[in-house]
Design a protein that fits this description.
Number of helices: 16
Shape: globular
Number of strands: 12
Distance between the termini: 65 Å
Radius of gyration: 25 Å
Strand content: 15-25%
Structural class: alpha/beta
């Protein structure tokens, strides 16, 4: 009888803790999935089947499992030793078999949703907010997690979490996006442009324009209004290079490398007509030299082979055949066609030599310095 009463008291305690956490989430405008809490308590750890069910409910919600108390963490830690469970971030857990099937984008969203529930007072900023705004899916930018703070004494960084000081009222700088507290889009772009490497920052700024999160001139004016902030000039320089015609992050990074190496900024997504069937082709980059000769640059990313939206149901062999036909038709226009991939971008010396050999013109000046991709 006493054992039964003790179990009943533990269950009531767990349900009360879940209710308190649910109220806390609702108070901060974050989503709550039905009546289920992703927080795992010791009373929910009696057997393996209950644990599996808890993981399945978390996975259905696109989240990781959260360990709310020490006993739950210890129990999950034992499963970490066997490789059955992994922890992508402190206090959040996922089944290894499930995690391995997720794309980088899905992993990023699982981590951010889980952290938003675990830390409902956090306001994500910089690259973390860019993830939530949908203007980056770079897994390399997922950590450190960037969190805004108004208190200078809390401006400390670690390998996993970076605190970013916002001197004015934080309430004026945050909004809810997909139920997660993030800095407003203008502030997010500003922080990314001033803190990140040029190629990462340009990719985010291009995406912001492509997705019409902001206007070119209004954003430039916003950045000029941030003149008292550290690195605001760097942010403005990045923004002035931004172009919403870039179709993906790979093209943005390629253009960033071209600018960093001191070559002229190319025109983007220029249409060419196929003289045989009058079909329109668009090229990634185009330079026109003073003598009138045109140079086409094509970035060979992997996305066209794996993204269903780009492959349109075609096999890899069909995509390659279409690419060869497209290039042969473009060559009728008496142009030079230069192809390169991500590995070539990483080698600055080799890539500069490639651009020079194809006769890509130099820029009058450049503000960016070559960095590591």
């Amino acid at each position: 009888m006493k054992a039964r009463e003790a179990r009943h008291r533990r269950r009531l305690t767990c349900l009360h803790a879940q209710s308190q956490h649910q109220s806390h989430i609702h108070a901060h405008g974050l989503p709550w999935i039905g009546a289920w809490s992703p927080l795992l308590h010791d009373c929910q750890m009696r057997n393996k089947s209950q644990l599996v069910q808890a993981f399945l409910r978390a996975e259905e919600s696109g989240q990781c499992l959260l360990a709310d108390d020490r006993n739950a963490q210890v129990s999950l830690h034992r499963r970490l030793q066997t490789g059955e469970v992994l922890t992508p971030f402190p206090r959040i857990y996922a089944r290894a078999s499930y995690w391995s099937r997720l794309s980088y984008s899905e992993k990023g969203w699982h981590i951010l949703r889980s952290l938003a529930l675990l830390h409902p007072n956090w306001t994500f900023c910089a690259a973390s907010a860019a993830w939530v705004w949908g203007i980056t899916e770079s897994y390399a930018l997922l950590e450190p997690i960037c969190v805004a703070t108004m208190c200078e004494s809390h401006v400390c960084t670690s390998e996993r979490v970076r605190r970013v000081l916002i001197r004015k009222g934080l309430d004026d700088h945050y909004t809810l996006r997909s139920g997660i507290r993030v800095t407003v889009s203008e502030r997010t772009i500003f922080d990314c442009a001033r803190f990140l490497a040029f190629h990462d920052a340009l990719a985010i700024c291009d995406a912001a324009l492509r997705k019409q999160l902001c206007d070119v001139d209004e954003m430039a004016e916003y950045l000029r209004g941030m003149a008292r902030h550290r690195c605001w000039k760097k942010a403005l320089r990045v923004w002035l290079h931004a172009d919403g015609r870039a179709e993906n992050g790979g093209e943005s990074m390629a253009r960033a490398r071209i600018i960093e190496l001191g070559f002229a900024t190319p025109d983007l997504q220029v249409p060419f007509e196929d003289p045989v069937n009058h079909r329109e082709y668009r090229v990634d980059f185009l330079w026109t030299r003073e003598d009138g000769h045109r140079i086409i640059g094509e970035f060979d990313g992997l996305q066209k082979y794996v993204d269903p939206a780009l492959s349109r149901g075609r096999s890899v062999e069909k995509i390659l055949r279409d690419e060869r036909r497209r290039e042969s038709r473009l060559s009728i226009k008496d142009v030079s066609i230069m192809r390169f991939d991500y590995s070539e971008l990483r080698d600055s010396i080799s890539f500069a030599r490639l651009l020079t050999q194809f006769g890509v013109p130099r820029a009058a000046s450049t503000h960016a310095q070559p960095g590591k991709l």
